[in-house]
Amino acid sequence: MSRVLRPLRTPLGVLTVVTLIILVLVAVLASVLWGDDARLADPSRIAEGPSDDHLFGTDAGGRDILLRTLVATRLSVGMALLATVIGVTVGIALGLLPQLLGPRIARAAASGINIAIAFPSLLLAIVLAVVLGRSAFAAVAAVAAAMAPDFARLTYTMSSSVAGRDFVQAARVLGVPKVVVLLRHVLPNIRDALLVRASISAGICLVAFASLSFLGLGVQAPEFDWGRLLDEGQSRIFVSPASALVPGAAIVLAGLVFTMFGELLAKSLPGAGSRGRSRAARRRHGPLSASTVPTPTGATADSTDASPVLRVRDLTVADADGSVLVDGLSIDVGAGEVLGVVGESGSGKSLTMMAVAGLLDPSLDATASTLEFDGVTLDHAGRVDAERMSRTHGRHLGEHLAVVFQDPMSSLNPAIRVGPQVAEVGRLRHGLGRRAAAGEAVDRLDSVHIPDADRRAHQYPHQFSGGMRQRAMIAMGLMGSPRLVLADEPTTALDVTVQKGVLGLLRDLNREQGTALILVSHDMAVVAAMCHRVMVMYRGRAVEVVDSDDLIAGRVRHPYTHALLDSVPSMQTDRDRPLTTIPEDADFPTGPVDDRTEVTR
Ligand SMILES: Nc1ncnc2c1ncn2[C@@H]1O[C@H](COP(=O)(O)OP(=O)(O)OP(=O)(O)O)[C@@H](O)[C@H]1O
Question: What's the pLDDT score for residue 484?
């Protein structure tokens, strides 16, 4: 709270607040106190200069210029605020729209917004005001319409960036409807920047209205706003400068107040960016398997379980240019199994997991001859369509599939307290009431060893440590009945002292509830200790799947797996020589090992 109030204690903050209060008081009271005087013409005092009775003189109707300017505050400020509210609301709705539509329509909508924003907004407002007719209502509609594209662009850009964060992906895995994701997870994280921009825009609106009225397009007689007063006064500016200068000064001052208020808001609000660091990356990976069955396209992480939890055949992911990023991958993971996935950076581990979770970027093209999760076929005529998966199987995936992302800071929505985030699954999936879901969330937080879970549930993610955030993510998965957990480098961002706790939690879940686990990691020691089998990926292909015992003993066959093992230091490593690394230009075969391949290690 003190952080929010700190900017108010600066001289600029005090000045802004005081002037804002004065502006509001004038807008509310001036019409009541001086409305009649400001409207009543006095033919005996037409176009007088400054005097004791009239500080800044009178206008062509003999009315006090100062009083008319004060009385015009309500209409001028009111119209600016109304247009801002309408423009911002419409702009935000338009800016969020592409997130709700399919990729093609979204691109078209985004292009439409870009084209609209290319028009100078004041020019657009003038054109619209002419088209809509001369009235205050038309002016409000015109200024709001001219402002909307700007906000649509801002909203679209910011929401696109937030939509890439892990906590939004996590919400999608849970099957949260798109509109709810936008309102609950995206909008709160861009709200602050929009608020600041809106208050600054209100000042700009004020000038736009003055311009319209000055051109005779806005408020019509007998009503008057500052722009109209300026228009009336400009013809007499050389005889009676105050007639134009007073309303002109009011426009400038009020515009300044709004702008200063916007600046003050910017300093007071923490801002979406500071609440949660953006991480565009998504990584999730690998599964557990049982036997290595070389296939024509790649090694298969194959489960011995008669009815695997996850069954993937010939998964291929290509980008828009046709480059193949994941090439013919086949995986089986059975209940209670842990499959490790290792491989060089960029080998396609995350994309594989994204495809399984239905979180693939729409720009990517994915196909599979089989993609079954927990007895449900997820692919559609060979196409892995994330949109369709979420629509058709969102509920099933949300209940039985849990994802633990790499970066615990970006996995949780920074704008929502941890308890309600964990409780969301209970409310969405199990139809629990707010109170019941909150109670269950506390139980789950407790079960993942969050100390003082009741109190912690009321805290925001930034008040949690990294390890606690990962535990909270796991607690979220436990709100359903997960049959499979995809853990994408879940401990990479954590201190080593915390890693053990998080991995232990995943292992307990696997052992006690028979939950299958796919663990992506670069840490060979972790993989060897945690997993039954390990799938080695290289350039988009599974080149080898090996029992972890064999991995530990070095009984591997593919040259890339050898190279991976050679790069792991051991107690026997010669400390006087540089550690072995895999050269960047190394070119290993991308085909899978088969039974004829000699075990050379
Ligand atoms: N949305 C996308 N559009 C185009 N290419 C992509 C996209 N996402 C990932 N890629 C590319 O696909 C390849 C595999 O990416 P992926 O994230 O699966 O790698 P990874 O094995 O998980 O790497 P790391 O270990 O560094 O996380 C990379 O070359 C990456 O640049």
Answer: 92
Cis bond leading into 247, ω under 30°?
no
Reduced to 3 states (helix: H, G, I; strand: E, B; else coil), residue 61 is coil
CB of residue 364 inside a 6 A radius of ligand 1: yes
Mutate to test the pocket of ligand 1, among 316, 326, 351, 538 (most ligand atoms within 8 A of CB): 351
Query: Which residues share a beta bridge with 313?
Result: 370
Let me know: does 404 contact 487? Beta carbons within 8 Å: yes
What is the residue with the minimal CA distance to atom 17 of ligand 1?
350
Pair 67, 32: CB distance under 8 Å: no
pTM of the model: 0.62
> Which residue type sits at 385?
D
Interface predicted TM-score of the whole assembly (ipTM), two decimals: 0.96
Residues of the chain falling short of pLDDT 50 = 1, 271-298, 304-306, 595-601
**Using a 6 Å cutoff on CB, does residue 81 contact ligand 1?**
no
The per-residue pLDDT for 287 is 27
Q: Which residues, in sequence order, are CB contacts of 482 under 8 Å at separation 6+?
A: 400, 401, 402, 509, 513, 515
Alpha-carbon distances of 35 from 57, 66, 71, 209, 565, rounded to whole Å: 17, 12, 6, 21, 86
Phi, psi angles (nearest 5°) of residue 17 = -65, -45
User: If you measure from the C-alpha of residue 220 to the centroid of ligand 1, how many angstroms do you get, rounded to a whole number?
Assistant: 60
Residue 167 CA to ligand 1 centre (angstroms)? 19
